[in-house]
Amino acid sequence: MIGKISGRLDWRGGDTVLIDVRGVGYVVHVSDRTLAGLPGLGEAVSLYTELLVREDLLQLFGFPTMLEKEWHKLLMTVQGVGAKASMAILGTLGAEGVGRAITLGDQRAIQAAPGVGPKLAQRIILELKAKAGSVMAMGASLAVTAQADDTVLEPFTPAAPVRKAANAANAGPSRAAFTADALSALMNLGYGQGDAAQAVATIAGENPEADTATLIRASLKLLAPKA
User: Fold this and answer.
1) Secondary structure of residue 52 in the 3-state scheme
2) Where does this polypeptide localize (predicted)?
3) Is 173-223 CATH 2.60.40?
4) Which of 75, 117, 133, 199 could form a disulfide with 219 if both were Cys (CB 3.0 to 4.6 A apart)?
């Protein structure tokens, strides 16, 4: 499985790019939004990738962040959503916009993507609404942008082991952890720290047993513009 490509941008097409990785060229399909954010020809570029395997076809799809890649994979679990439709939705809304639209049930936002009709938009919301919170809760770590330096080398530094207190080894997530994760996800979506913190605190006060996904969904409804 090819999960990430780092190289030099050799060519741009309508919805594809050619990335040269030490003499080997990879054709990668990208959304309009991703294409617009790429550097100039000849410059270093890095994309997270998802490989689509069919009987007579291999296609690489590229994403600037792991969060967008995860949304692509999740969107394609919906019947009727192929790679083309998924890329159109992400190209129109971005990863954060997709999460917000699904959580709030904003069918019109999803329909704004080329080729997505009302029935498909409704199906996406119905099938993914319960899953959106968990993906958004991971947003703070998954939204890291792929980077490539001029040498096109990706050094790896193992993460230091996390030390846990002996008496907390078997403890589950705390309420503080749920609220912190929900606040991080909301700020990653573009909400100000003050507004996000107030919304999370309000929901947590009303529902002390709420987990991260529940806090995010309820806070987004609270923060949504009133009609």
Assistant:
1) strand
2) Cytoplasm
3) no
4) 199
Tens digit of pLDDT for each residue in 121-151? 999 999 998 887 777 776 656 666 666 655 5
Q: Does domain 66-133 have CATH number 1.10.150.20?
A: yes
Instruction: Quote the CA–CA distance of 82 and 75 in Å, as a whole number.
Output: 8
Q: Is the model's pTM score more than 0.85?
A: no
Contact 112, 124 (CB under 8 A): no
- Mean pLDDT in residue range 98-109: 90
Q: Which two tokens stand for residue 120?
A: 């498909």
Can you read off the two tokens belonging to residue 22?
A: 């030490």
- CATH-assigned architecture of domain 4-63: Beta Barrel (2.40)
Distance (Å, whole) CA 133 – CA 208 = 17
What are 203's two structure tokens? 């929901």
Cβ atoms 90, 102 nearer than 8 A: no
Question: What's the pLDDT band for 227 if we cut at 50, 70, 90?
Answer: low
Residue 72, classified by CB atoms within 10 Å of its CB into exposed (0-12), middle (13-18) or buried (19+), is buried
Residue 188 phi/psi, 5° resolution?
Answer: -65, -25
Task: Tell me the three state secondary structure of residue 132.
Answer: helix
Looking at the predicted structure, is the pLDDT value of residue 54 above 60? Answer: yes
Tokens 């159109």: give the residue. Answer: 88
Residue 152: pLDDT over 80? no
Q: Residue 28 is inside which H or E element, if any?
A: strand 24-29
